[in-house]
Amino acid sequence: MAAELEAAAGTVCWWGLSPALDLSLHLPPEPDPAAEASVLLVGAAEGRHLLLTAARARRGAPRSITLFVSEQSPEPVARQLLFLLLALENPERPRPAARAAAILQLLGSGALRARTAELLRGAAGRLRRWVSA
Predict the structure, then answer these.
(1) Domain DUF4470 spans what residues (predicted)?
(2) What is d(CA 94, CA 102) in angstroms, rounded to the nearest whole number?
(3) C-alpha dihedral, 127 to 28 to 21 to 84, nearest 10°
């Protein structure tokens, strides 16, 4: 098993090797609930911690969290942010079934349908504005 983990070093997988963490549970208590918290993720190329934290954001008192990601290779981070952006898209645009089909097509296809390519271009443009702002 150890040899398999060593061979996998440097690869990125969506689910990781450990359970996802809700980052808000590991923040120090703040006397002011409106205070912003900063979190640094080092080598977190997959988005499972971000997704779980976002999914549980409505539990408890609202708290603003700014995430900083330090990663040697920015491409996996951009890919995971793109998938998170597509997953969290407005439910009306596109329909959930079409969005799920597009995500599956992006994960496992070499060629994209025109509608999926259009969705990808729009999401990539929004992601570019988020990252460069």
Answers:
(1) 14-109
(2) 10
(3) -10
Q: Up-side HSE of residue 17: CA atoms within 13 Å toward CB? A: 11
Structure tokens at 13: 């997988």
Q: Apex CA 80: angle with CA 75 and CA 86, to 5°?
A: 125
pLDDT tens column, 22-67? 888 888 877 776 778 888 888 766 677 877 887 788 787 777 888 7
pTM over 0.70: no
DSSP state of 64: -
Paired with 42 in beta bridges are 70
By CB neighbour count within 10 A (0-12 exposed, 13-18 middle, 19+ buried), where does 31 fall?
Answer: exposed
Cβ-based neighbours of 52, under 8 Å, separated by 6 or more = 20, 21, 22
